[in-house]
Structures are given as structure tokens and as C-alpha cells.
Amino acid sequence: MLFGKSVFQSVLDRLKAEDDETAEQDAPAAARVSGLNTGLAFDVMEGVSASSARPDQAYVETFEFAPAKTVAKQSPPPEPEPEPVMPDYLVRVTPENVAAELDISARDTVQSLSEKRRAFAKKNHPDRVDPPFRENATKRMTIANLLIDQALRRLGR
To answer: Per residue in 47-90, pLDDT tens?
Structure first.
């Protein structure tokens, strides 16, 4: 302990005092950020503005040939994307339609029911369809999961 303080506390006090001293020193130019060694991009140095000194043109003068400046062509505005069309299968949201697609039978095993669930989800999962059709896809997935879960419970008996 130094003068009733721990070594750690005395180091913290010294660092705070040094920080206060640097803050009291003359502040650099307004365009400078404390702690950086260089100014910001909008500084004017030696009468040349940053906008006229282009870093991407620094070595062009050393080329045997200078590339010709190209005039930026205005591209036509992008065409709006066409509205997505709902696939036919997403219209069928009744339990009878979904059951017909799943084709669950008494011969199905746990493994075959799991495969049917995955195949159905691959095609119908709400995350895999366009946003306007997610409500129908959610209904179809809910019905399919319900039907497959019922079939699995019947197998367990």
C-alpha cells in the first residue's frame, strides 16, 4: 500500500490525472478526432481539398496509358417484380385435401410417417413460400401435423 491506497488504486489515480492533463492541453483542430493521428477526410491540406485529391487516382499517372474516363450512363429504373402467383396446392386447405396429399394408411410406420412429414414440410412450410401465401401454408402445415400426430398415436396403441 502506498500512502493508504492499494497499488491498483494509485495506478488508477495516476491514469486519471494524466487523462485530465491531456484534456486540458490545447484542443486540436475542430475536424480532428481525439486519439487519431490524422484529420478527417474533409480537411483541406496545402490548398487541395479532399474532394479533388482522389485516392483511387493516386497511381494512374504511373500507368503507361491512363484509362479514359467513362461517363456514367443512367440506367433505366428497374422494372417492378411481378406479383407472385399462389401455387395450386396452397389453395387446398381443407383437412380432406391435406389428408389426400399425405395418403396416410394403416400400413404406415413411424419412419414412413416421419418421412411424409418432412416431405410435406419441404414443400409447404410457411418459411419457404412468398409472404402473401404464408397463412395458407401455415394452415396446411397445422393440418398435416395434426393428421400425422393422430396416426402416430394410433400406431402406439
So the answer is: 555 555 666 666 666 666 555 555 566 778 888 888 888 889 99
Rounded mean pLDDT of the chain? 79
Dist CA 85 CA 132 (whole Å): 9
Mean pLDDT to the nearest integer, 94-102: 93
Burial string for 54-72 (b: 16+ CB within 10 Å, else e) reads: eeeeeeeeeeeeeeeeeee
What number is the average pLDDT over the span 101-126?
93
Query: Can you tell me the distance from the alpha carbon of 95 to that of 141, in angstroms, rounded to the nearest whole number?
Result: 10
Q: Of 147, 133, 150, whose CA–CA distance to 92 is shortest?
A: 133
Query: What letter represents residue 88's amino acid?
Result: D
Backbone conformation region of residue 18, classed left if phi is above 0, alpha if psi is from -120 to 50, else beta: alpha
Joined grid coordinates for residue 51: 474532394
Please report the DSSP string for 24-41 in residue order. Answer: HSPP--TT--TT-SS--T
The CA-CA-CA angle for residues 121, 124, 125, to 5°, reads 65
DSSP tag of 52: T
**Do 92 and 139 contact (CB within 8 A), yes or no?**
no
